[in-house]
Each structure stands twice: as structure tokens, then as C-alpha cells.
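Input chain follows. Return C-alpha cells only.
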Amino acid sequence: MLMGLEPAVALLGVFVGLLVGSLGVGGGAITTPTLILLGVAPINAVGTDLLFVLPSKLFATLLYHRRGEVDVTSIKKLLMGGIPAIILSYILLVTYMRGVGIEGVNNAIRLLLGVLLIAVSFTHLAKIVLEKEAAKHHNLPPLSLELVGFIASALLFFTSVGSGVIVMAVLLHLFSSPPRKAVGTTLAYSLTVTSITTVFYAGLGAIDLRLTAILLLTGLPGIYLGFKAIKAVPRKPLIAMVAVSILLLGSSLLFLGG
């Protein structure tokens, strides 16, 4: 691990924990790019964030599950698309790594993550603007959630980002799920696909255990505080702040390679 990162990583863990506990999203979109900008190799940043988010989301999921705020039916449909996506993504990553080497993979991850973060930031901002006009579609094609699961899981595998914001947006605006149930369902789905993806990254040796430990020690208390404060947190200002932060991080990643 790069020396001198401990204080910055500790603060990062607290901030991300608060976001995951109160919004159910924002973890990977903040953690992974910040680690990269601090000097961690992109593939290691993704793997480290995945392991960090794994117990963090387990803790948060249990809190929501205890209150019956997890939709098991939706999770099953999401996983029908998500699990095949992870397997295919792993095959693609290994094949690409053999062709271009680790530096090529790191550059590709950084660029993909930068573009995705910018898109995610505008998604968050659009959610704020269009919240009252969101359509309520109840007659979506039967494979809609499976497709969402496939796309979200593929993005998660390569960047550790996407599963939360995509699934949350679909559940809230297309299925009109209550906010707390949408958060709980998103967390439970993300927990499952993150668990599988983490195993693959561990096999690649792309996880920094010391960084993960620091993130967990500060992130878990943050998750609990965020969960307790969810009703008191002004969601729109917080989401707007997260969106701007993600936009800046994504732009920084693109300029980093430019």
C-alpha cells in the first residue's frame, strides 16, 4: 500500500459509510475513483472497494431486512441477469489482460470508470429534477429486471460502480417502490453480486487488504449512523452534493490519463 494514505482512507470510509447507510448508493462511485486519484492501481482500487463494500452492505442489508424492507422477488429477477453477466465479464477481463497486459487493463478501467461516473452524476441530477414527473410503469416486459441486473452487474465487475444507482433508479421510478424498500432491495442485490465479483478479484490478487481494513473500521460506524439518520437527511441536497462530487471525480480520472 502507498505510504501516508491512512488518514485520507479513514475519512473516505466514514463518508462512504454515511452515504451507503442513508442513500443505499454512492459507495463505489466515491471510493474507487478516490483510491485511484490517491495512487492505487485501478484494478486494485476496484478489487479493494468490492471487498470493502461487501461486509458494509451485508451490515446495511441486515438492518433493512430486519424491518421487512427487502423485496426478494425483485432480487431473484435481478440475479437471473446479474450472475451470467459477472461470469462473462470475468472471461472478458482475463482475455483482455492476456492481450494488452495489466497496464492496458488499468487504463481501460480508469477511462471506463471516468465516463461512467460522469453519466452517473447526470443521472443523480436528473433524478432530482424529474422526481415529480417520473412515470409509473407497471406493465414492463417480463425480462426488464433481468436486463437491468445484467447491465448493472457488468458495470459493477469492471468498475465497482453502477449496481446501486441503476437498480435504485429502476425500482423508484419504474416500479414505484417505497424509498426504504428500494434501498433495502438495492443493498441486498448489490451484496450478492459483489460477493461473487469479489471472489474473482481475489483470485486475480487485485485486493489491498490493509486499505480494506481501514475502510471497514471507519465505514461500518458511518453506515449505522446513516441508517439511523435516513428520515432526517434532506435527500435532494445530499444527492446533489454526491452528484457534483462524482462528476468531479469522473472528470479527474479522464484528465489523469489525458
